[in-house]
Amino acid sequence: AIYIGKPSQPIIYKPSVLNRWLILFLWTTVVVEMTGKLLGTQPVVKVAMYNIWNGIEFVFYFLCFYHILGSKRRKNVVGLFLLVFIIFFSGNFFIWQGYGEYNSHTYTVGASIVIFLCLLSFYDILSSDKLVTIIPVQSICFFLGGLLIFYAGTITNAAVFNRMVSKNVDDAIRLYKLINHNLNVVLYGGIVISLIFDIRSKKIAKIFH
Predict the structure, then answer these.
(1) Which 3 state secondary structure label does DSSP give 2?
(2) Would you say 125 and 137 are in contact if contact means Cβ atoms under 8 Å apart?
């Protein structure tokens, strides 16, 4: 917990579950990326690590959706998707594409599910009578918006890259990296803004309590 305000009248801010998860996720992402840099001379190990991380990343997002979507019916939908994804991830990692090759199928399936769950969450937010959550709506919207733009963008970017690479490899790679960089800025920017709104709403709630 963080104490905000004058020492004589402290305002205790207790971060939400989503807030704590996101902070842990951001630090873990930094560690994974740094490890990837160190594994530059071991491509097989590096690819296997990123394949595992992609699986963990999507499972993390599904758990966030499970927490955001308050109704039992919605939680059952997320739980079903989570089970299907874990089975598909395991099969693709050990059997189909294998751990030594980048698991693009896993990414496509996971990204498609995330996009669907983002749209489902936005639908619930617009239908306020179906929204049951203690997390601030602004915080949820920035989190969902970052996810939706990022994964919709990366799937489209990969499709465009596959069409362009046959015409001009260098231009295709430059464009792919530029778009991917900007999508990462949107994703992590959305997560950071989501955290800020969560902290701000808790602070205001304590002041007016």
Answers:
(1) strand
(2) yes
Give me the amino acid identity at 91: G
172, 113 Cβ separation under 8 angstroms:
no
Structure tokens at 103: 């698991």
By the 8 A CB rule, do 36 and 51 touch?
no
What is the chain's length?
209
Name the residue among 207, 170, 30 with its Cα closest to residue 199. Answer: 207
- At 135, which amino acid appears? I
Q: What is the CA radius of gyration of the chain?
A: 19
Q: What is the mean pLDDT of residues 177-193?
A: 93
Q: Is the pLDDT of residue 193 over 80?
A: yes
192: helix, coil or strand?
helix
Q: Over the stretch 6-47, which tens digit does the pLDDT of each residue have? A: 444 444 445 566 677 888 888 999 999 999 888 877 888 999
Residues of 41-77 as b/e, b for ≥16 C-beta within 10 angstroms? eeeeebbbbbbebbbebbeebbebbbbbbeeeebeeb
**In the block, which residue shows the tokens 């190990």?**
45
